[in-house]
Amino acid sequence: MRALLIALGNPLRRDDGVAQAVLKLPIAPETESRALFQLTPEVAAELAGFDPVIFIDADASAADVIIEAVNEQSSIGAFTHFASPSEVVALSRSLFGFAGQAFLCRIPANDFSLGEGSGRRAESFVRLAAERLRDLLAVHLSPQCEHSY
Amino acid sequence: MSRQIVIEPVTRIEGHAKISIQLDHAGGVQSAKFHVTEFRGFEKLCEGRPFQEMPGLMSRICGICPASHVLASSKAGDMLLGVEVPPAAEKQRRLVNYAQVLQSHALSFFHLSSPDLLLGMDSPPAKRNLFGLIERDRDFARRGIRLRQFGQHVIELAGGKRIHPGWSGPGGVHRQFSTEQRDEILRTLPESVESISLALDWLKGVLDSFSAEVRHMGNFPSLFLGTVSNEGGLEYYDGTLRITDSSGNIVADGLDPKSYFTYLGEASEDYSFMKNAFYKPIGYRKGHYRVGPLARLNVANFAGTPRADGELQEFKQRASGAVCESFHYHLARLIEMLHCVERIEELLGEPQLYEENVQAKASLNKREGIGSCEAPRGTLFHHYFVDQNGLMTKANLLIATGQNHQAMNQAVEQTARHFLKPVTAGAQPNEGILNRLEAAIRCYDPCLSCSTHAMGQMPLIVEMIEPGGAVRARIGRESPCELS
Questions:
Q1: A135 contacts chain B (CB < 8 A)
Q2: Tell me, which fold does domain A2-140 have in CATH?
Q3: What is the structure's pLDDT at B481?
């Protein structure tokens, strides 16, 4: 199985670009990645065949880099032009046969003003996020690791 | 005592808006308005920037139809340079615009409006979403998502990104299109044709069960405006503008989009940040016109592709003149989707699409540039003025949703008059009625980010306001009625 990393955010909004900055660092060879401004429902059609799928996003409420399972029980909102990781994962399981694990990697961020490049604090979290993703994938992509839904 | 009902914000549209309904002393509907309550102002913030930056900057107006803004902006840039773009660039622009219309319409029909159509206008609000659709018809929901994915993928292949592609600029586009990209598109194209055909057959089959909505949810005479080819066919990238009336008569034809300001006027109202547009010879209010899928099908003589032509001729049988029912925007949207896929297939078969020369090079030759195209929601105009250094001094954007503003007001008012029974003090309007008020707006698939160049969120609040302005009752989608 291959892992899929989906980085969300706008690199023209300072720290909002931290997720895409993570993708520029080496993570794991068996990994495919996408850089998106925002999640939309059709992303659900792209998850099948990957395991795990990891969404990476800037988070103003996070104090540390956190990687957690996507909460698939969270409430489903009225779909509009964007979607949350939990909605996309639920859609993908329901309609497109996604059977892997899904994680959300939240990276602390606080400056969402106009401009390129993130602050020093956010950059340190980018490196930390890459390390933690490497650790996670080392476990999940090892031949001994088996999990199913 | 008269009161006012306010729905704020309206749901399942792009942006932040509210609907207010002024009630008369007997509790009946006196008037209704659609207010856009957000503002971002791209026209102002682009001043002082080089015109070459405009396509990239203007694409940020909207995450749904950025390619249309890129195209209108690029065409305004073409005019500033005084060039004609190479054939490969024009075909690539057309390809992306068809993909743009397709993916935007797929979103509007399958994600935003089909919950009302498949589950019913009075179904529980918590079910009126994509997951409700999955429970009812898994294949329908899957096909809707795949259709949008197809359109987005075409944009990504040509433009480099699925949202905010900056691949086009003054003079042409930035990269050559390849036969490998063609082959990738062709692999999933037949599925798209099949999905649209199935959706079309399904919608035509259920229209009778929405006869009240068809008749009373925005069915009124108006002018219609859209771009047509030299032969009078459906056209989205270039051509002239045609205006017809509700009887199907041509009011004006062969209008040059580059002189839009001579025959189209713009006006603002103090209740909304969104501009209004009107046909100048008739004047403000009486000269209001509709744009978008319904208007395009009404003004065009033919589609120019086999399947869409068959559907268009059938569509035109629905009225002796123009099709005036706003509800039929949905049907028109599906016919346009079919046309777009057919055109995409045609374009992929044209050798010029793959030519190497994709950029006409020139320096600034004019101080004023105007670009227009058909965006998913209707005719789009970008009008720029620059100084001798090519820096923007002024921009005017005339957006489809703004041109439909008066029509949306009229649709809401007609829907309220028909479906909203006299409201006694303290009574709460039926939720399904409120949904119909929103659905009347959704027929137009308004993009408020585009029309005010802003972004927002979408819960729902209804307020009943007394003549003095005091709030009589406040009803929220996520909270129970609060009566004052």
A1: no
A2: Rossmann fold (3.40.50)
A3: 31
**Shortest Cα distance, chain A CAs vs residue B127, angstroms:** 9
CA A24 to chain B, closest CA, distance in angstroms equals 17
The domain spans of chain A are: 2-140
B130, B138, B163, best to mutate vs chain A, most A CBs in 10 Å: B130
Residue type, A6: I
| H and E: helices and strands count for chain A | 3, 5
Say if A97 is an interface residue toward chain B (CB within 8 Å). no
Rounded to 10 deg, the angle between the B306-316 and B329-348 helix axes is 160
The DSSP-derived string for B356-424 is: S--B-------SEEEEEEEETTEEEEEEEEE-TTSBEEEEEEE-HHHHTHHHHHHHHHHHHHHH-PPPP
Tokens of B91: 């075909």
Domain definitions of chain B by residue range: 4-35+405-425+438-483
What's the rounded Cα separation, in Å, for the pair A16 and A81?
19
Please enumerate in sequence order all residues whose Cβ is within 8 A of that of B86, keeping only pairs 6 or more positions apart, or say none: B172, B355, B357, B358, B359, B360
Distance between CA atoms of residues A107 and B205, nearest Å: 49
Residues of chain A with pLDDT under 70: 73-82, 143-149
Distance between CA atoms of residues B264 and B278, nearest Å: 6
- Name every chain A residue with its beta carbon within 8 A of the beta carbon of B138: 94-95
Contact B145 A38 (CB under 8 A): no
* Chains A, B: CB pairs < 8 Å: 65
Say how far apart CA A56 and CA A102 lie, in whole Å.
11
Q: Exposed, middle or buried: residue B423 (CB in 10 Å: 0-12, 13-18, 19+)?
A: buried
* Residue B38 amino acid letter: E
B104 touches chain A (CB under 8 A): no
Of the candidates B443, B445, B206, B226, the one whose C-alpha atom is nearest the C-alpha of residue B326 is B443
Cα within 13 Å of Cα(B193), Cβ side: 16
> Whole-prediction pTM value?
0.88
Facing residues of A58 across strands?
A: A107
**Helix B306-316 vs helix B179-206: crossing angle, to nearest 10:** 20
Residue B222, C-beta contacts closer than 8 angstroms, at least 6 positions apart: B246, B288, B289, B290, B324, B407, B410
Question: Which residues of chain B register pLDDT less than 70?
Answer: 1-17, 36-40, 422-429, 448-484
Closest CA to B239 of B250, B223, B226: B226
